[in-house]
Amino acid sequence: MAENKGGLFAKTVQKHAGRAKEKILQNLGKADRTVDDVFDEYEINFNRQQTNANRLHKEVANYLRCCRALHGASKSLFETLAEVYEPEWVGHELLYAQAQNSDMLWTDFCHKLQDQTLTPLTAYQQQFPEFRKKIDKRGRKLVDYDSQRHQLENLQRAGRRDEYKIARSRDTLETARVTYEALNKELYDELPTLYDQRIPNVSSSLQALFAAEATVMAESSKVAKELEAIAEKLSKECAKGTYKVKRGVAPR
């Protein structure tokens, strides 16, 4: 068992070393590399799409946190008003009703942001790591393919041809080619499909966000106007002396 593990480890190290050597030769211009301009464009699009998805998810999550904080601040304010606003003052019951309305509006708004915007964006964002792994794997398989291709070319150019080694190298190259091309074909189908998802995902999320925001702002405006009217009535009653404390005469 230990020998099997040791052999597997040695094989893995050898494979990594071979890839590293091939990349160095390619970077130094001493070995050609397979070029695929179409896939390069797909990968550029993917990287930009992933970056934008992560940024949007981060900001929407932060926006939701701030909305929940504002909801908490609003509830705290109304709780304080319920204690400060004395029972005999005009509009006391209306103030409580508007506090309940405000709480329901913010609760519904935060719920919609979570369910209709952040959750879909999270599902959209979670696709990218697996695609990233697949793209990286394709890159490794391409290096393997190029490396095997160069090994076969070197064997064929050798002064003394070893037909056995050449035959084995051809088989290894064919295996590398099939593995690479299968993965490459999958990504050729999947990456454009993923890229086309960016518009419907962004548009539906923004539509849900701003529709919910428009509702909470419109309804909150009505609540604010009612509260303003209550405060105005209290001010008028105060001006009329309704709540003036009766003054007594100090004893001598």
From TrEMBL:
Stored PROSITE patterns: BAR
Keyword Cytoplasm attributed: yes
UniProt GO molecular function: phospholipid binding
Main location: cytoplasm
Domain BAR: 24-240
Locations listed in the record: Cytoplasm; Endomembrane system
Claim: Cell inner membrane is one of the keywords in the record: no
Entry GO terms, CC: cytoplasm; endomembrane system; plasma membrane
InterPro entries: AH/BAR_dom_sf, Amphiphysin, BAR_dom
UniProt keyword annotations, A-Z: Coiled coil, Cytoplasm, Membrane, SH3 domain
UniProt xrefs under Gene3D superfamilies: Arfaptin homology (AH) domain/BAR domain (1.20.1270.60)
Domain of life: Eukaryota
Pfam families: BAR (PF03114)
Extent of the signal sequence: none
Name by which UniProt lists this protein: Amphiphysin isoform X4
Source species of the chain: Procambarus clarkii
